[in-house]
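Teaching note: in complex prediction, the entire set of molecules is handled at once rather than each chain in isolation. The prompt given to students was simply: 'Predict the structure of this complex.' The entities are:
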Amino acid sequence: MSDQSTVEYKGPAGGWGSLRGITRIFGDEWPTPAVLDTLAHQNKPGGFMCTSCAWTKPANPNVLEFCENGAKATIWELTHRRCTPAFFEKHTVTELKGWSDHDLEHQGRLTHPMRFDRASDRYVPCSWDEAFSAIGAELKALDPKSVIFYASGRASLETSYLYQLMARLYGTNNLPDSSNMCHETTSVALKTVIGEPVGTSVYADFSTCDAIFFFGQNTGSNSPRFLHPLQEAVKRGCRIVTFNPVRERGLEAMINPQSPTEMLTGHETPISCQYLQVRAGGDIAALMGLCKHVLQKHEEAQREGRSVLDLDFIERHTSGFDAFLDTVRATSWEAIEENSGLTRQALQAAGQVYVEAERVIGVYGMGLTQQVHGFDNIAMFVNLLLMKGNIGRDGTGISPVRGHSNVQGQRTVGISEKPELVPMDRLAELFGFEPPMDKGMNTVEACEGMLEGTVKGFIGLGGNFLRAVPDTNVMEAAWTNMRLTVQIATKLNRSHLVNGEVAYLLPCLGRSEEDAQATGPQTVTMEDTFSCIHGSIGRRKPASPDLLSELAIVAGIAKATLSPNPKVTWDAWVGDYGLVRDLIEQTYPDQFHDFNGRMFTPGGFYRGNSARERIWKTKSGRAEFSVPPALSAAGFDDAPGRFRLITLRSNDQFNTTIYGYSDRLRGIEGTRDVLLINPDDMARAGLSEGQVVGLSSDAEDGKNRFVGGLKVTPFDLPDGCLGGYYPELNVLVPLSHHDIQSKTPASKAVPVRIVPGPEAG
Ligand SMILES: Nc1nc2c(c(=O)[nH]1)N[C@H]1C(S)=C(S)[C@@H](COP(=O)(O)OP(=O)(O)OC[C@H]3O[C@@H](n4cnc5c(=O)[nH]c(N)nc54)[C@H](O)[C@@H]3O)O[C@H]1N2
Ligand SMILES: Nc1nc2c(c(=O)[nH]1)N[C@H]1C(S)=C(S)[C@@H](COP(=O)(O)OP(=O)(O)OC[C@H]3O[C@@H](n4cnc5c(=O)[nH]c(N)nc54)[C@H](O)[C@@H]3O)O[C@H]1N2
Ligand SMILES: [Mo]
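The expected output is the structure of the full assembly:
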């Protein structure tokens, strides 16, 4: 690498920096002092469960069981700012479209149901009754197959269950979820190869594992409380090996902000013992390299009468091993080095950690799932783990780190476009109707439907769909062709500004707020990344007296739309969420028995996982070794001038919610309009630091996609890889660029070229 220095952050993750991150937000959003009480109970039994990530809530929590980003999420929700009808009177929707994501949400909490008035180009206040009956009338007039019921992974199990029930009673399985842009690859790949759509590890496994392999998950920013068990693991001798094109600080070193000694002495714990900067899309090859080393060591050991592979496990529990071995043998180190961007020596050293460890956990995130061959990334990771029986034993497992706080749970209780994943017979029996059995649309298919004009209505249970999906410009243009768009939200975002002919914006309670109904204050529940279910009670005064709970809004729309059914008692359910938990229990008796009785179990109650018990619900009845169809996960070839763009999250955002402009852990401050590039690539492209350039799409469809105004920023990345921020760069991700099997958009290796000069297009 040339000696041009790169932008970086030299401090550890956690530490004083994380406290400064929180206090900066505090200063700006300062809610009531009561927020401190909410934070003190955050993620603890009987308290409220953080709306940020899906990391688990342990049975024995820290004194303060929240992180920098969890605190930001709570403060953001409990802000004193209000986005009232008076605000909408002042600003036209067209004007607001010119505002940044940060400025829109920064207006604070929505307070009143609003109807979009096309004539004045403004949102105007309306009553709840008016909104529900207008939406009901529109839905009745539409073909159910033309309406999308989207959910962002935050809403509780109770609301989610009723949401899918409403969609199915109405007549559609069009239930895409934010998961379709996220860990859908996991749901499809793990279901295929181990028979469960979710991870097999639990929290306790992190106390007994000998090694952890990390692929494409940014713990320091996205699940910071995970750093505590990692720090503990390192201290007891567990070895952590990380594969990531970016040197993420949280995986290099941390200071526990809850330890006074560490804070005062500045003593940091190194996290990864080896850090391999794999090329974006290079993981299939990297994993192949690890497997090749394991196999070689096994063959050496066999000559001495020993074994590295768990042959007994392979024999009794797996299928496809021979074909897999043939492929590992046939793949050359040259091909592995070229596709992974890593040297044979580095891969062998990492492979040796795997060989020497008795118990290994495989952790991963968006770096593996958001790729054209994302499915094969995950299947390949499972291959590595199966070689030594590292699934279904204490201290082992495959561990996807889920995103939104209840995204996994939404799938568990039936938000799925795939009817075969839902116990339709039970729904039919419980509610006396014939559920639709045709496949619904996932996120990409819903977008395709909007482009084709077959989708006419959209209901959004949270989220910022239009900003989160690929091909922003194309999708925004198509969106306004819809007849009906309804958004249930806490804060204003861009998806609320691009409207169908009839459009409503319905404000809801946040999870930290008291949800009082006919039978008193209500509890809601969520499922964390380890399949543990937790009750959550909000205690803060609602941001406005005109808010309804998400569950009440769903029921309001349902009642106005569906014909009466004696088995479907919306009012009773709104009055007592415990009745909805009874329905969940009746629908999923094995996993949710005694739901109401167990929901406050410290650490949550575990709903079980067959693969963890080595019961494989796959086609063959065994865990599947598989052969990847390609060594590169990128899904496109290299070409002169073509780069692989990684769309990143900063430490100062939660998805499309932009708290601020400080990506502290990467040393990028003050702006998000950056193009991260390594100094060698900079020199080759004739660029200089601070120069403003654009990016254009280099996808095979040849379509024109362009983003300008990006500041060239030298950054430590592998050759041929660029970094920039999501959602600003979603303009460049083609809708057709997605994981082949699950259709998760492939946002981590997007083909682009650099266009010098800000105005080029
Ligand atoms: N503070 C905060 N927390 C969050 C979120 C947030 O936006 N902000 N979002 C939440 C949600 S919904 C989700 S899904 C999770 C997302 O959390 P993560 O799964 O961590 O997702 P990302 O940050 O998008 O990307 C993860 C990492 O993948 C790396 N990467 C990119 N390409 C590759 C590749 O080809 N191979 C490998 N091995 N690595 C690669 C990137 O450098 C990055 O470090 O976080 C959740 N938590
Ligand atoms: N290029 C690129 N694109 C990506 C990704 C990427 O890494 N790169 N990541 C993808 C991933 S992993 C995901 S999960 C999606 C995220 O997609 P979404 O889940 O659709 O988006 P969010 O940004 O999480 O949604 C934020 C909005 O949710 C609303 N909200 C907040 N709290 C609540 C609440 O309690 N109730 C309700 N009803 N609304 C609430 C607020 O109005 C806020 O503006 O984006 C995906 N898109
Ligand atoms: Mo996500």
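Point out the following to students. The pocket of MGD (ligand 2) is lined by residues 51, 105, 152, 154, 178, 181-182, 366, 370, 403-404, 461-465, 468, 488-491, 493, 508, 510-511, 550, 647, 655-657, 726-727, 730, 733, 747 (CB under 6 Å). The radius of gyration is 25 Å.
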